[in-house]
Design a protein that fits this description.
Elements lengths: L3 H5 L4 H4 L6 H17 L11 E8 L3 E3 L4 E9 L2 E2 L1 E3 L13 H7 L3 E9 L11 E6 L8 E8 L6 E4 L2 E4 L1 E4 L10 E8 L7 E6 L6 E6 L8 E8 L2 E2 L5 E9 L16 H15 L3 H22 L26
Parallel strand pairs: 5-6
Antiparallel strand pairs: 1-17, 2-15, 3-4, 3-17, 6-15, 7-13, 8-11, 8-12, 9-10, 13-14, 15-16
Helix pairs in contact: 3-5, 5-6
Length: 330
């Protein structure tokens, strides 16, 4: 997978006009990737790297989608296919593969999109205490703020010197946990970090549970979530494996470890040239570079998905090759 760090060390720096360490370079790359995604989609196959199969778990019937997923093309669980729907309409009609679900739940199962959450896993047994752990020692001392409700349903507040502020703060690199029991988390704010940050929950004597993993560039993490339901009820309380075919959208990159959804350095390079040419009012040159970027993406898709290509074996002499055929014999 192509990362921002890979792009910085590539030949893109030769056409950007700025040093890769300059924020303008990252801005050029982000603009190029965003425009490439918006200009085309590679047909039903998507641009290479933008359509992926993902696998995860639904907890208590709740499944959280990665932040860069913009469209769900298909969903399966170990019991078969799922119908995708929301409160207005159904995306996909159920097929015969859903029969196992219907027999299991005595009704037609669906996966419904509901909104956004900042946790990968919902808090089931509340109240809990939280702890944030940084994967990189370079993030020691940085602080994240947790917003939500306490044991009594009141908003989480921190009182310092008689002045109350919203949320409670956790310091990375320490072992401290929240000194307030939490029943619900509504928002998380964190600074940009070198490594990922893990958010854990504790409650009573129960084992530690991982609630979320935030990437370094996640400063206000929000993720779409869905529920697996049948006849209006949650699917089940046990973790359920979910596999889905999804399309990835644009998400701004800021640190070297961020993944680039367009896995084609040459296309990004051409698009950066197009952007710079357009800024200089050289629109003909900009159009040429833009078309070159699109051609590179199309060629990449065709080389990996040769759906329109096939080989033809023409053997007028039966199964034998031509060099095995002798005069007067076929």
């Amino acid at each position: 997978m192509l990362t921002l760090g890979d792009i910085k060390s590539s030949s893109v720096q030769n056409v950007s006009g700025v040093n890769p360490s300059d924020p303008s370079f990252t801005q050029y790359v982000n603009d190029a990737v965003r425009m490439l995604i918006e200009l085309g989609h590679g047909g039903s196959r998507g641009w290479w790297g933008t359509v992926k199969e993902i696998e995860g778990f639904a907890y208590s019937g709740c499944f959280v989608w990665p932040a860069d997923v913009i469209a769900v093309l298909g969903i399966r669980t170990f019991r078969g296919g799922l119908n995708i729907s929301n409160q207005w309409y159904d995306y996909i009609n159920p097929t015969g593969s859903c029969n196992d679900w219907a027999r299991c739940w005595n009704g037609r199962p669906v996966i419904e999109f509901h909104g956004e959450t900042c946790l990968f896993r919902p808090i089931i047994a509340s109240p809990v205490q939280l702890q944030a752990v940084a994967e990189s020692a370079q993030d020691t001392g940085k602080q994240i703020v947790i917003y939500g409700d306490d044991l009594n349903g009141n908003e989480l507040l921190t009182v310092t010197g008689g002045v109350a502020s919203r949320g409670i703060t956790l310091t990375l690199g320490s072992t401290n946990v929240t000194n307030i029991a939490i029943s619900r988390v509504t928002n998380v704010q964190k600074p940009s970090t070198i490594g990922r940050v893990r958010l854990y929950s504790y409650y009573g004597n129960a084992p530690v549970e991982l609630l979320a993993i935030y990437n370094g560039s996640d400063i206000n993490p929000k993720f779409q979530y869905s529920t697996l339901t049948a006849n209006g009820s949650a699917a089940c309380n046990c973790p359920m494996s979910v596999r889905a075919l999804v399309k990835l959208g644009f998400r701004a990159m800021s640190i070297n470890s961020d993944i680039c959804p367009i896995d084609n350095v040459d296309a990004i390079k051409s698009m950066v040239q197009s952007i710079r040419a357009r800024e200089a009012e050289e629109h003909d040159s900009a159009d040429r570079h833009e078309k070159m970027a699109m051609r590179r993406l199309v060629a990449q898709v065709n080389s990996r998905f040769p759906l329109e290509q096939f080989s033809v074996a023409f053997k007028p002499f039966g199964r034998d090759e031509l060099n095995h055929v002798t005069a007067g014999m076929i």
